[in-house]
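Good morning N.,

You mentioned wanting to compare the apo and holo forms, so I went ahead and generated the holo version with manganese (II) ion. This is what I fed in:
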Amino acid sequence: MLASLLLNRGIQDAQGALDFLCPDKSWLHSWEKLPDIDIALERLEQARSRGEKVLIHGDYDADGITATALLVTAFREWGLDVCYYLPHRIDDGYGLSRAGLEQGQRDGCTLVVTVDCGVSNPQEVEYAKELGMDVIITDHHLPPDELPRALAVVNPKRKDSAYPFSELAGVGVAWKLATILVPQTSSATLQLAALGTVADLVPLLDENRVLVAKGLEEINSNPLPGIAALATAADCQLGKLDSTNIAFGLAPRLNATGRMDSATVAVDLLLETDPDMAAHLAQGLDQKNQYRRQVEMEILIEAMVQAEEEMRAQSRILVLHGKNWHPGVIGIVASRVLEKYYRPTIILSGEGMLTGSARSIAGFDIHAALKGVSHHLDKFGGHPGAAGLSVEEQTMETFRQALNEYAVDAGIDQLLQPVIELEAIVTPGDISLELVDEIALLEPFGFGNPQPVFAFEGFKAGSVDLVGKDKTHLRLRLDGPVQDNIWAIGFSQAPLVHNIDKGSFLQVAGMLSLNRWNGHTSVQVQFTDIRGQELWEYLGRKIYDRRRCNQPWLSQLMADSSTVFFANTRWGAQRLLGTSLENCRVVTLPPDKYREKVYNLEANCFCFLDPAWTAEQLRDIISLLPQGCQIHLFGNSAAPEHILRPNLNLLRQFYKAWRDNGGAAWANLLDLLPQDLSEPILLERMLAILTEAGLAGESRGRWELSTVKEKVDLTRTQAWSRYSSQLKEYQNWLQGFCSQTLDQLLA
Ligand SMILES: [Mn+2]
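and this is what came out, ligand included:
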């Protein structure tokens, strides 16, 4: 298994495997191969010997923040006088900034060293020179054809670079420079390099893997006060931090400062030596992050409404716009919308000139798409998966159309189905604690080295349950052939419950992990998708058979407010829906004249709590529902059959109660029925029988009892015999409903 996982990661020989499994600093590439590094080093030595002041210019994301903190740490230790500047996302924009250079000049700096930026800023480099400062660029962004005329441009992505690995983060390049000045084993710089490398989503392979593995070791044994405080603020367990904690706990908090405000405070935190002060600063970052989440959620709600409209209009690329959407979070919102609809998404904000952020799906190059329609754009730039742009508000509509036409021509329709990359097939006999340990050798996981996702085959669905506070998680037991069961959990995967048929074979996509509980360790599957047996289709509608077992499928349908529930009686609906009845869309079906209640019902999901009154009716209703919808058939074991034809006992009791009460309005009469049978259809039928027998009559909307002189046989009325045959038919239908196959039922 391990060998095939290594092969999947492009590792083909024993040495490669050894290097991968035991990441070690000893085989890192020599810094001497980095372009211009000797020039940079010479100028730094000169600065140190002359006692010059050096400006470190970073960037406002986690990569730029950690890279700045790293060089400040290393330069100070080496004996340089430094100050630092991070651009402001909204005031300065991305990259080397004039305001920063001016501040450096005021502070008396004569040398600027950039981290994580600068290679795309030729004009700012010229400006720095005008201000009397030399410029050393360290960066990892793809350089333009013509490099800025800086003293040195240290960038492994330069066309003329001889450096063997080009995927370093900005902080990785800064770390290479730092290792020349301070020992390679310096704990502080390793920690910062690991943090920024994970956060910047560069592939965790080659040197990045070593940096992250070694940096995590340092973070877990002897964390910088700032990193420890940040981890605590993020609810991560000190000493046990992994790359996932960094990606989802620490990095978002670092990034939040630059999204909502100035990121300088994040550098202050990483440089802080006093634990109390660090805790205070980390709290501040955490609050910024909470604020970021709140703003993001508000925008997301508005964006989703627009996205729904665009989906209805069959847009291939979602272009959404809000005047006041915060430019610092539109990139994250674009990712969220993409997750939900799996369409490339562009979020624009502002008035007049709109600025935007684009995110794309696998296989669709959004940068190329923007280039293809660039005559509608003011500016654009980025990568195949993510890009930035600006466009005039007036041209937004033509841009949207042109972009969608481009996408269709580029064959986007082939790509709109999300794909899960499965690494290997796992069958019941394969699973063991040892296998999980083996997989753990591939850590740290992240971009470029994902935690392996497997296809689990040969398992049947055992017990199924919705769990969690809002019942949004799905837990099920995967049953192997010889009592080798394993528990599986899917976070926020409750909707997948409809792909599961208890007792039948499943295909599950998921990761293996250990579940430690009550001193007991077991293997569990964390799944992201489940495929069940092929669905049964009828007249182009998908039929889900839940006649034998209502839960937890019914709960999941009740949680979706758009589901339409059909029931024969209000009482029957109450039996299955309980107190949620009031919040659900319930349609009670009469035995006849039901069609007007079913026409034009708009929903994707319909649910029969009772199987209608007859087979013909069930088939007819299904044919009236929208093509492509889902239809769930449930079994309602306690259907009140006698509603179709009241029994004599009930008629007698009703007659007596009526006589004693004297109430004659229709609603009052309904109250005279036993509570569990208080259904309009029953009352109508009782009145029809009584009227035909001459015991009751209606005049001007009021019902009156008639005086009886002789004994009346109600069973001789035509209404009685008509209802009796309906009842017989219904009883047969109910009996057959649970015992027949779907083919037989709907044939
Ligand atoms: Mn970067």
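The chain has five domains: 28-285, 314-414, 425-531, 536-639, 643-734.

Happy to go through it together on a call whenever suits you.

Best,
F.
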